[in-house]
Each structure stands twice: as C-alpha cells, then as structure tokens.
Amino acid sequence: MRDSSSSPSAHPITAHWKKFLVLGLMGLGVSWFFAFQGMLEHHHRPLLSVLVGGLFWVSVLIGLLMLTMITRVFDAGWAPVVRRSWELVLPALPLVLLLSVVPMALLPKFRHLLWDWTDASHLLPNGHEVGHDPILQAKSWFLNENFFLGRIFGYVVILGGLVWALRKWSFAQDTDRTAGHTHRLHAISAVGIPLGAVTLTMLAFDCLMALSYHWFSTMYGVWFFALSIRLALAFTVIITYRLSHGGWLDGIFNQAHRHVLGCLMLAFTVFWAYISFSQYFLIYTANIPEETYWYNIREFDSITGLKNQWWSVSMYLVFGFFLLPFLILLFYRTKIIAGRLLSVAWLIFFGGLVDLWFNAVPRQIADKSGPEGFIVAPFLTPHLFLDLAALLGFGGIVIAVFLRGASRHETIPVHDPRILESINYHE
Amino acid sequence: MNERNERIHGVACTFRRPSDVFHAAERVRDAGWKCWDVHTPFPIHGMDQAMGLPRSPIPRLTLLGGVTGFLTGCLLTWYMNSYDYPLIVGGKPYWSVIFPFPVLYECTILFAAFGTFFGQFIFNRLPHHHHPLFDLPQFSRVSDDTFMIVLEARDANFHLDESRNFLLSLGGQEITVIRD
User: Fold this and answer.
1) pLDDT at position B6
2) Best residue in A284, A315, A337, A422 for a mutation probing chain B (most B CBs within 10 Å)
3) Which of B55, B98, B101 sits opposite A332 (nearest CB)?
4) Which of A27, A238, B76, B123 is the most buried (most CB within 10 A)?
5) Which of these, A182, A14, A154, A167, lies nearest to A91 by C-alpha position?
C-alpha cells in the first residue's frame, strides 16, 4: 500500500481529487445554508434538497456495495477490474450518510421539520396534531425517536463495517498475494448480502417512506434496491467510460465488460419497472384510502381535482425511466458501443433523480384553503436548483474520495486470482 | 464434375490444437466460404469473428413474438372484459392498460419465448434426425480432443481436389470425404 498521493505510479487524473473536494464542499455549504435558513422559517423544502441529494448518492453507493458483494459471492470472472473501482469509491457511503441523514436525524429542529411524526405539535390535514394521532400511536413501537436514532446509527455502522471489511482484505491481497483472502471475502459477502438487504430496506423505510408516515408499502425496500442497482450500474458505466478513455482502465476495460454492464442495466431496468408497477398495481387494485392517497397527491391537484405537475413526473418515470431505456437497451449494439451505452447511463442517472423527487418531495401540507384540508407543493419550484447544488455537493465528495483512494491503492487488483480472466474477459 | 459431387456432402479435416483450427478458420473465411462449419470439443473465444459469422437473427423473432404477445394480451382482455361480456370488477374501467397488465406482460413473455424457441428450430433446421457427419468415425472425437473443419459441397467454392489441397495447406491432419 502506497501512502503518498505523489507516488510515481499514481495515475495523473487522481490529482484532480482536491478540485472535486472543493466543488463538494461548496455544494454542501450552499445546500446546508439554505436548509438552515429554511429551518428558521419553518420551511421543510430546502432540507429535502439535502435529503434528495444525499440519498441519491447513498443509493448509488449502496448499489455498488451490493454489486461488490454479489460479484464476490458468484465468483464473477468479469468483475475484478471493475470491482476495484467500486472498492475505491465505497468509503464515501458512510461519509455521505454522516453529512446528510445523520445530522438531520440528530438535530431536533431538522428532524421535526423533515419527519412530521417526530413533531408532536405538527398539524395534520384532519385538524389533529401528530401527538394525538391514533395511527402514529399504533406504530409507535417502530416510529419512536430513540429507536429511530438507533437505527440511523446502525445503518452507518453496518454499512461502514461492510465497506471496511470488503476493502481491507481486498487491498491486503495486493501486497501479500494470498488467494485465501478471496475465500474470506466470499464468506463476508455471503453474510453481507442479507445484512445489506435488511439495512437498505430499513433505510428506505426510515428516510423515504416515513416522510408520509400514514402510508406503507411492503415493496418499498425492494424498490429502493432496484433503484440503487440501476443507479450503481449507470454510475459504473459513466466512470468506466472516462477511465477507459485516458484513465487507468485504458486498454483494460473492453467490449465484453461493457456488454455485461449493458445486460445488467437492461435486467434491472425491467426489475425496477416490475417492482414499481407492482406497488402501484396492488394499491390500485385494493383501493384502500390510507394507501391510495400517496398516489392521489402525486396525480391530482387537491383543490381543482385536475392532474397536477407530479402526474407529468410520474409519466416521465413510466416512459423516460422505463420504456425508453428498456427499448434502447434491447439492442445488442447499444450494449457494446461505448458512446451509446454512456447515453443510456446518463438517461438512467437522471431518471433515478426524478424517481427520488417523486418519492421524497410531495407531501400533504395542512392548509384550510384546500377542500380536503391540505395542499401539495408543485414539482417546478426554484428549490430544484438547491437539489442540484446538493447533488453536485455530495457528488463532489464521492468523486474526491474515489480519486484520492485511487492515488493510494492499486487501481486494479493485481493479485486477484481471477485478474487474468477478468482482463481477458470475452463475450 | 456435378455427377460426382451429387453424392458428396463435403470434406472434413481434423486439427490438433485450438490455435491451428482458429487460424485455419480465419483463412477459410478470407477465401470467401459460406457453407462450412467448425466443430470443437469446447467453445473457443473469438471463433465467431474468426469464422466471420454474423449475429444470430433470432432476437428479431423474439422481439416480434413479444410485440405479438402484448397485442394478443390487449385483444384478449379487451374482448373478454369490455366487448363480449362487459363487467365491472372492483370499480375499475371495462378496459384500461393497468388492471390487465399482468396478463399483458405474461403474454409478452410467453410469445417472446415462443419466438425464440421456434425461431432457433427454424434457423437450426430442426428437427434433423440424421446428419452425414455422424457416419464419420473421427467425428465422435470432436467432443473429446480433436478439432474439425468441414467444407460443404453446396458452397460455390467447392471443388473436391482443390478443397482437399486447400485444407492440407491450412495445416490439417486427416482429410476425409463425407458422403451423403
């Protein structure tokens, strides 16, 4: 393990990590500043920007963590050259959690603003206060602040621990050339996959589903998993495109690797659609008000009863986040031509953001002017720029962690038993 | 010449190493052969390109099957629920794209699978109960330790003596004429 970023064999592009760190800190400064201002005015939307920006990258990184463990468990021969880049970026996962969800949950004023259910005096559309809400009382064994804070702490520890373990023995193999580390990482991943699955499910429940705590969906964890893997694959395609054009994967990352990533992108595009539609379909078929309201506020204006902006957003999810990537990815040539695959990856990257907006932003705000006692803020607001700032902020941190890691470790696992199979991987 | 060729399926030639058969295949491809094949005990990476094989046309039949299945599902659910016997179930519309979606995608998958399965039957010319190569004693060894190139008589390039010499020039070991 080299300990200096000025190491002669560090790739020149890793030197840019400081620029990304500055970009990241600027983005975080702007978004947290406005979140603080919003808190003073008792306005939750700026804080949602930090949540959306943070969870977007948490989602990418959880997807990469799961992919790392899945390729370990299945002994994927193609994976080692790509997996090292995942291992280099993974320490950003606990870091992004510590910079977004953790302070929001820890500081009571932010917590009360973002998660209605933690604020006993918060007014509900039916005129009651959260403190007297029988629905919350029935769920209080799960939704109580101590358990909630414990869970948030648990997510950081479990995910951080998995990242630590997966990196430790993988990097150890670079120097001591022990094949036994591969077996050890196989075993860690076999335990880590169910552990990670439960953790990401609970994280999706706490950070997204609990934003509308009356609503519940048992598909929510699977939806978050599908979204995470899609975003992780899109992220992988984007960074490997850059790294194979003048980066450390130049001449190593080949058409067959691209084909594998393209096939996985197609598979998880279908899987995401299957899960998202199933959630909608079950709620639509059962037609129970406590479930349907979640979709109703995303379709109808509560005052006029006409379609609102969120309906257009949901149509974008159907056609722009599923149908278009699905149809493009069906074609073999999309999966092998680098530029085309990159375009689809950006399409999926943007679609994932839209999906997070759709899930996190709309909420019922108690207001007497609405016939049902609430209003819903439209999609198009100036806060979208704050979302962008948060997105770039956390993204800058993630890329800075990645490049700094790449300057200190081998950029491909040179003594992985499958490294030759991976480099010579063939369709 | 034609009378002599009528009863000949082609010429087979064995090779001892994967690299020999690989480079021989490249030269057969470059000589412009269309009706020929390579038989190996295991897949050899890059052989598709060495043989100049295009992508399989079967995915097109899969897509065609999938689209047909989706439309069949639409027709089925619309005809049953909305046209032949209009029935309100759970307050849902007679027909929309949402409630019968499981039927639509199951039909899509089923017909896409039909397209793929019967497509490969058609392109592989199955069922095919016998093949002249099966009469060749050496042919059983291509599932063990031998590699084989077969040039078929129906190719425009085929000429028994020239083809035999061509295969010898590629480094072939044992040349056999296959009769129908």
Assistant:
1) 56
2) A284
3) B55
4) A27
5) A167
Q: Which residues pair with A136 in a beta bridge?
A: none
Task: Give the C-alpha distances (Å, rounded to integers) separating A268 from A226, A229, A342, B98.
Answer: 6, 7, 16, 21
Given CB atoms, is A281 within the 8 Å cutoff of chain B? yes
* CA A87/CA A151 separation, integer angstroms: 25
Token pair of B104 as six digits = 């639509």
Per-residue pLDDT at A14: 93
What are the pLDDT digits (tens) for B84-126? 999 898 888 999 999 999 999 999 999 999 999 999 999 998 9
- pLDDT tens-place string over residues A283-332: 999 999 989 999 999 999 988 889 999 999 999 999 999 999 999 999 99
Please check whether residue A7 lies inside any domain of the structure.
Answer: no
- Taking residues A19-23, what's their average pLDDT? 97
Number of domains in chain A: 1
Q: Show residues of chain A in contact with B91, CB under 8 Å.
A: 287
State which residues form the domain around A168. 12-423
Closest CA to A69 of A192, A200, A195, A207: A192
Residue A410 contacts residue A172 (beta carbons within 8 Å) = no
CA distance A92 to A259: 27
A112 falls within a domain: yes
Question: Which residue bears the tokens 């198009």?
Answer: A380
- For residue A103, is it within any domain? yes
Q: Could you tell me if A18 and A400 are in contact, meaning their C-beta atoms sit under 8 angstroms apart?
A: yes
Asked if A11 contacts A386 with a C-beta cutoff of 8 angstroms, the reply is no
DSSP-derived secondary structure for A267-291: HHHHHHHHHHHHHHHHHHHH--HHH
3-state secondary structure of B173: coil
A146 contact B CB<8A: no
C-alpha to C-alpha distance for A13 and A22, rounded to whole angstroms: 16
- pLDDT higher than threshold 60 for residue A7: no
Return phi, psi of residue B173, to 5°. -90, -60
pLDDT digits (tens, 9 = 90+) for A77-136: 999 999 999 999 999 999 999 999 999 999 999 999 999 999 999 999 888 899 999 999
ipTM of this complex: 0.85
- Where do the structural domains in chain B lie, given as residue ranges? 2-55+131-179, 58-123
